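Quick one before lunch.
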Amino acid sequence: MQQETILVLDFGGQYNQLIARRVRECNVYAVVRPCSVSLSEIKEMNPKGIILTGGPESVYKENALLYDKELFELNIPVLGICYGSQLMAHILGGRVEPAETSEYGHTEVKISDSSSKLFEGVSENTICWMSHTDRVTALPQNFKVTASTKNCPVAAFENAEKKLYATQFHPEVMHTVEGAKMIANFARKICKTGGNWQMDTFAKDEIARLKTKIGDGKVLCALSGGVDSSVAAALLSKAVGKQLTCVFVDHGLLRKNEGDEVEAVFGAGGDFDLNFIRVNAKDRFYAKLKGVTEPEKKRKIIGEEFIRVFEEEAKKIGAVDFLAQGTIYPDVIESGLGKSAVIKSHHNVGGLPDFVDFKEIVEPLRLLFKDEVRKVGRELGLSEKLVERQPFPGPGLGIRIIGEVTEEKIKIVQDADAIYREELEKAGANKNIGQYFAALTNMRSVGVMGDGRTYDYAIALRAVVTSDFMTAEAAKLPWEVLAKVTTRIVNEVKGVNRVFYDCTGKPPGTIEFE
Ligand code: XMP
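Model of the xanthosine-5'-monophosphate complex:
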């Protein structure tokens, strides 16, 4: 049976992924496609509904991104949001002009037509998120206004008979208080979907699909212990068991106990019936990193060495039919759809070898967002600790130690980081924090401990609030927690006499130190 799908047609707005997220929260599958996708492809896709996104342009400008009028004649419900609403008006014969007063931010919207299916159950006066400089000033024929604001008489309009709906505001963002209800009304009621997109069905279906696809072939998976590759490995293991080999390269730059934790889950006696190879390669990584201080050089060395180790293991295993990757949906979108495989592998594991003799790449998670991947992980019985792991860079602690990487420094940063994470989690101060870790500055300073002089390292603590890791703010951690972490680190971690908290955002900083 074909998966019921809502197509999100991307006109370059900022919140397009968010629209797909909101639709999926209604248990309806959503895909984002660029607005260059052809009408015949859309027909083939046979979506249950189409959402036109916002975008930075003006519909009346030369070279504006437009679409074939026939899109509105497919008898498929369409919801236009912001630019999408202006596009609908413009193409169907209405008028769009620059607004006398631009509206940005929280705006009170009055729902003027309570019979609108889009606004079923929504309060008559409701707060919505506006962000526009153009507005619809004349409606196409047979459309009616369904909502307005003080400065925008046409804040929403529709032609219910033709199943065409439009909002000037953004129902997909959290600031639109009843936006989720509006999206649900569209995705479930107007598009008449059954709401079958669920993670338990996904896992079951995907396992069956993988079984058919792989047959009795051999699969190789580079397992980092991160959420994506772990969940991909778990799915594959359920599908093809021992035909799967996971190669886990322990480069000695992992967090404290991390290598053993990954092995406990995926290795012999663990939760999965698969071939697991842990390569303890720390000595070769440390040797290559000796004396190297330049960040980019360190990254390159770690990435390259990773490839070498992986290649050697792949060669030992012999003819592999499939290479598995934990590519997820944002990776697919960010890299312009369908071209993600290479980018992701480079980004995640420092690059996968070209030579591996495989027929195809399998990416069982390429339709999912991160939180959906986590749900599947839980569904498959992965521990909460594994499923909730924060992102960890491929080069590991190598880029959290400023300057030369030595075994002594790795031990220091591992111990400090473990204390920091433990205390933050114990105090519940890690909620809503995207990433938190300790790094070792290359700075040594004078201190006094037990009446004696010390000349030791300084640890930097980092915690950032971020939704996409592209920009971030330093988290406002409770002082008591920072004080406790500081005391514990200087008392328990030999070689440290000072602790700093990094208050820098991104930009101008980055999340990692190198
Ligand atoms: P920055 O430091 O660029 O980090 O602000 C943004 C996010 O990316 C992660 N990161 C990496 N992830 N390989 C990865 O898989 C890498 O080489 C890498 N470098 C940074 C970082 O942890 C943060 O989540």
